[in-house]
């Protein structure tokens, strides 16, 4: 907010949010504080623990700068910064679930979230149930007296189903459950979960916030009602992130708006073009009018990032591998949100509810910052290689 009360645009805010250069002798960026020990001036201050910083695991000026920026972006009361996106999924689940509780998790969830739920959470005595991403307000029927968490991710990992987050959040809250959302795909620039009834917004900051395929980091942003418990669990587990990585993500945020605009535009151009290509049965991108969840995307989201999938028109693993092996610019790799394009043949064998019958193998594309015409040419080579015969 400028001094005259005017609310600046998102890129202006991204350029300045988080730290105040005045706190650090005018240097534009905050220091990268490497810290375990923090000294106290006297025994009384030490005993009271009232000093702003008390120990490295509990926060530093570097982590505070990123947490403050995320709070501004998400509209949250507090943010914890953890060593990976997966940690950002696991810490809030551990904070709000106990033995005997029931957790509802969307079936099109990021696979390692499912592995954590099916192993650790079950071992700790939590009842885990997966729900259809298209369930909407009908989720009320699945909520039981012991349902403590509803875990959403929209669009879904790999298959990009859009969930009706406001309807799910309303029903979940009425049932007394905490609503969590993995918001990595949209980033807070294109969707702000807390404005739609979600309590806790999760990010693999590894992706667009970091933006350069060289950092692992997670953030978890909570509303007033949930932050204390989340922060307490974070301290209990000691899952603090390293200062260099935190700094790099804050650095990445400065350019995230301009990068995302480019990712969005290039991905949409390629998605639209793909719809008309021979050998393509379907394109799974929520910003396309043909996507079954397009109306929800249009109602709730203000943009789309650069990752989506398409379905080959028939074939199996051989055709999927032929497509991937013919690519030169696209790398074969799992993460996304970086500057470079990537492709992967997605695994859907873990799904128990969202078992859509696709016409062929599902290929996920992360569209990077390269020139669109070069990327199209690369994809054309892949499609030719995957054609039967
Ligand atoms: C939707 C989603 N959430 C969380 C993660 C985990 O992030 P990280 O790789 O930082 O553990 C990923 C990684 O691919 C992801 O796609």
The largest sheet, given as strand count, sense and whether it forms a barrel, is:
7 strands, mixed
CATH class of the largest domain: Alpha Beta
**Could you tell me the number of beta strands?**
12
Distance between the termini: 61 Å
Summarize model confidence as the mean pLDDT: 97
The gyration radius over C-alpha positions equals 22 Å
Helix content: 25-40%
The set of bound ligands, ions and cofactors reads: pyridoxal-5'-phosphate
Fourth-tier CATH superfamily name of the largest domain: Type I PLP-dependent aspartate aminotransferase-like (Major domain)
Shape: globular
What proportion of the residues form beta strands (DSSP E)? 15-25%
CATH fold node name of the largest domain: Aspartate Aminotransferase, domain 2
Helix/strand-derived category reads alpha/beta
Order of H and E elements: HHHEHEHEEHEHEEHHEHEHEEEH
Stretches where pLDDT falls below 50 for ≥5 residues? none
Across the major sheet, the strand order is 1-7-6-5-4-2-3
The total tally of domains equals 2
**CATH-scheme architecture of the largest domain:** 3-Layer(aba) Sandwich
Tally of individual helices: 12
């Amino acid at each position: 907010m400028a001094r005259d009360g005017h609310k600046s645009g998102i890129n202006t805010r991204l350029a300045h949010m988080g730290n105040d250069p005045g706190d650090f002798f005018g240097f534009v960026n905050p220091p990268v504080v490497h810290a375990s020990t923090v000294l106290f001036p006297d025994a009384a201050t030490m005993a009271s623990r009232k000093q702003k910083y008390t120990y490295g695991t509990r926060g530093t000026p570097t982590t505070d700068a990123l947490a403050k920026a995320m709070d501004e972006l998400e509209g949250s009361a507090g943010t914890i910064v953890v060593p990976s996106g997966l940690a950002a999924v696991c810490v809030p689940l551990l904070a709000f679930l106990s033995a005997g509780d029931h957790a509802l998790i969307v079936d099109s969830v990021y696979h390692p979230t499912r592995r954590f739920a099916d192993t650790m959470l079950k071992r700790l005595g939590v009842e885990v149930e997966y729900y259809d991403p298209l369930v909407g307000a009908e989720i009320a029927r699945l909520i039981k007296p012991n349902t403590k968490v509803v875990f959403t991710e929209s669009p879904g990992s790999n298959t990009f189903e859009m969930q009706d987050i406001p309807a799910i959040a309303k029903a979940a809250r009425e049932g007394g459950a905490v609503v969590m959302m993995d918001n990595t795909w949209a980033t807070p620039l294109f969707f702000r979960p807390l404005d739609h009834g979600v309590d806790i917004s999760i990010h693999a900051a590894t992706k667009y916030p970091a933006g350069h395929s060289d950092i692992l980091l997670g953030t978890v942003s909570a509303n007033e009602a949930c932050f204390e418990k989340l922060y307490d669990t974070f301290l209990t587990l000691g899952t603090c992130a390293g200062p260099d990585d935190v700094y790099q993500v804050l650095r990445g945020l400065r350019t995230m708006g301009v990068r995302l605009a480019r990712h969005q535009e290039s991905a949409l151009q390629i998605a639209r073009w793909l719809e008309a290509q021979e050998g393509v049965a379907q394109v799974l991108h929520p910003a396309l009018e043909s996507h079954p969840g397009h109306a929800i995307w249009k109602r709730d989201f203000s943009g789309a990032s650069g990752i989506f999938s398409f379905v080959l028109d028939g074939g199996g693993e051989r055709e999927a591998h032929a497509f991937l092996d013919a690519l030169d610019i696209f790398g074969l790799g799992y993460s996304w949100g970086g500057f470079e394009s990537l492709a992967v043949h997605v695994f859907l064998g873990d799904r128990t509810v969202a078992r859509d019958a696709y016409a062929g193998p599902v290929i996920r594309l992360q569209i990077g910052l390269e020139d669109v015409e070069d990327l199209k040419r690369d994809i054309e080579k892949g499609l030719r290689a995957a054609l039967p015969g």
